[in-house]
Amino acid sequence: MRGVHEFSIAEALVAQVQRHAPPSGRVREVEICVGALRGLEPDALRMCWEAVTHDTPIAGATLRVDLRPWSIACSSCGRTWTSPVPFVECACGDPAPHPTAGDELDLVALTIEEED
């Protein structure tokens, strides 16, 4: 069932936003950084975000998703790079460099509109 994973992530994000948002003001935008390993579909996450924020103080806040590529490192030559896929051959010929990042899911920023 597509979207179930995204729904639980959206629920967790709402809890984080509510914990970090100031008591006065309105949350207008939430920015997150998501690594490729998370397997999130940004459009599905945004749809779930709208559902879980409905009738809450953060309803209407825009969710911005920065989808990050894989970070790859080669133990043979020491080269590091980013890639849209996790398993690639290094330019030095090593057939098995390893992913070093891609599992992040970070709440980066909240944009708050101050109340008058």
Write the topology of this structure.
Layout: H1 4-20, E1 26-35, H2 42-53, E2 62-68, E3 70-73, E4 80-83, E5 98-101, E6 105-113
Parallel strand pairs: 1-2
Antiparallel strand pairs: 1-6, 3-4, 3-5
In short:
This protein is α+β, with helices and mostly antiparallel strands and about 120 residues long.
Give an account of the 3D structure.
With 116 residues, the protein is an alpha+beta fold. It has a domain at 4-69 and 103-113: hypothetical protein PF0899 fold. 25% of the residues lie in helices and 33% in strands. The protein is built from two helices and six strands. It has helices at 4-20, 42-53; strands at residues 26-35, 62-68, 70-73, 80-83, 98-101, 105-113. The protein has a three-stranded mixed β-sheet, covered by helices on one side. α1 packs across α2 (42-53). The radius of gyration is 18 Å and the shape is elongated. The termini are far apart.
